[in-house]
Amino acid sequence: MAADTTSGSPLRPGTIAVTAGRPDKVPDAPLNTPITMAATYVAGGEVEYGRYGNPTWTALEDALGALEGGRCLTFASGLAAVATVLDLVGAEGKVVVPRHGYTGTIMQLADLESRGRLTAEMVDITDTDAVVAACDGAALVWLESPTNPALEVADIPTITKAAHEAGAYVVVDNTFATPLLQRPLEDDVDLVVHSATKYLAGHSDVQMGAIITRDDDLWAVLKGRRDLVGAIPGPFEAWLTLRGLRTLHLRVERAQANAQELVRRLGEHPALSEVRYPGFGAIVSIVLAQGEMAADLLSRKTRLWIHATSLGGVESSLERRRRWKAEAATIPDGLVRLSVGIEDVEDLWDDLRAALDGCVG
Ligand SMILES: *Cc1c(COP(=O)(O)O)cnc(C)c1O
Predict the structure, then answer these.
(1) Is there an atom of ligand 1 within 6 Å of 175 CB?
(2) Per-residue model confidence (pLDDT) at position 6
(3) Is the CB–ligand 1 distance for residue 148 below 6 Å?
(4) CB within 8 Å of 111: residues ≥ 6 apart
(5) pLDDT tens-digit profile of 10-22?
(6) Ligand 1 atom 4: the closest Cα is on which residue?
(7) Residue-by-residue DSSP string for 71-85
(8) Segment 144-153 mean pLDDT
(9) What span, in angstroms and rounded, lies between the C-alpha atoms of 194 and 188?
């Protein structure tokens, strides 16, 4: 792993984000790993074919692996990574999953359950005792922390210990926190999953996913699934994500600072009945006191904040989550998820406050 060449001590995350996954420093080597467009390779080497490997993926996988503290595999999307992890569950195995997990993950589980492949047990991720009890007989415990869009936080170390005692694997979807704010592998979690589409790439122009693990056997099984199923990223997407990763620490720092300032100011606003924020990260969920109509109005009234799904880009966006049929019925109708970007916070506040002023009952 990345080590400081001068002192021998481990590098800090911001330095890893900038330095990991670069070509060897030899005369005339490019500073950045080039985009390698190749469907096949001259025989006799380790890669052989485009579905099995690509130097541009490898550069990104080295960097993201170093940030999370494990070995990384990249995928065509976050959900391709999710599907690959769920594929580890044996016939009729039990999966424990947060009731407010990402809708795509919940939908994959529902689909697999409807076809008799596995059973899914939904839990309230904040009720640690209930989650620990649900670990009994489980093959896989799926954690997402904070959850999307309820922003609930799980007690990862306690749940991981209980899951391991029950013989289950533990996975954490770390999309919201990023490896800068939370490194689940250090809490003994087996697998970390990312939608790299969000903060890692960070510019709303790439769809990609990743899995990171410290377990070489698990890594080999997952690599075998990727080879066979072919949910592989494009080389250009891998290059863009690595380029985005170079500024991850700056983007997360700024977006988080903006979010914390907005949370301080939003608490007073009469249009809102609730502001949800886990204390870290840059996603904030607000609940409009006047419900669904006011929330839809807010989405139309902002000028700077873009009405769009997804999150984690440099630009601020917002969305009423219940406009999606698949969103959990326990998420309030009037909940709007804010993805706070890296603009000047005063401009973000001016725009949001003006739009909210128009949504007071
Ligand atoms: C977006 C998202 C995913 C799915 O990733 P895609 O890249 O859209 O396939 C998974 N988990 C979380 C928490 C997400 O926000």
Answers:
(1) yes
(2) 64
(3) yes
(4) none
(5) 899 999 999 999 9
(6) 78
(7) EEEEESSHHHHHHHH
(8) 96
(9) 17
CATH superfamily of 249-357: Aspartate Aminotransferase, domain 1 (3.90.1150.10)
Ligand 1 within 6 A of CB of 319: no
Cα–Cα distance, 299 to 144 (Å, whole number) = 26
Q: What share of the chain is helix, strand, coil (3-state, %, to 5)?
A: 40, 15, 45
The values of phi and psi at residue 342, to 5°, are -110, 15
- Residue 245 to residue 202: CA distance in whole angstroms: 8
Q: Which atom of ligand 1 is nearest to the CA of 82?
A: 10
Q: Packing angle between helix 345-357 and helix 292-301, nearest 10 degrees?
A: 130
Domain ranges of the chain: 3-245, 249-357
Q: Each residue of 204-228: pLDDT tens digit?
A: 999 999 999 999 999 999 999 999 9
- Do 140 and 89 meet the contact criterion of CB atoms below 8 Å apart? yes
From the CA of 312, give the closest atom in ligand 1. Answer: 15
Cβ(339) to ligand 1 under 6 A? no
Report, as an integer, the average pLDDT of 225-253.
Answer: 98
Q: Residue type at 204? A: S
In this model, does residue 246 exceed pLDDT 80?
Answer: yes
> CA torsion, points 136, 142, 148, 149, in degrees to nearest 10?
-10
Q: What pLDDT, on the 0 to 100 scale, is given for residue 1?
A: 45
Alpha carbon distance 107, 200 (integer Å):
24
Confidence of residue 327 (pLDDT cuts 50, 70, 90): very high
pLDDT above 80: residue 7:
no
Considering only the top CATH level, what class is 3-245? alpha beta
Mean pLDDT for 75-103 is 97
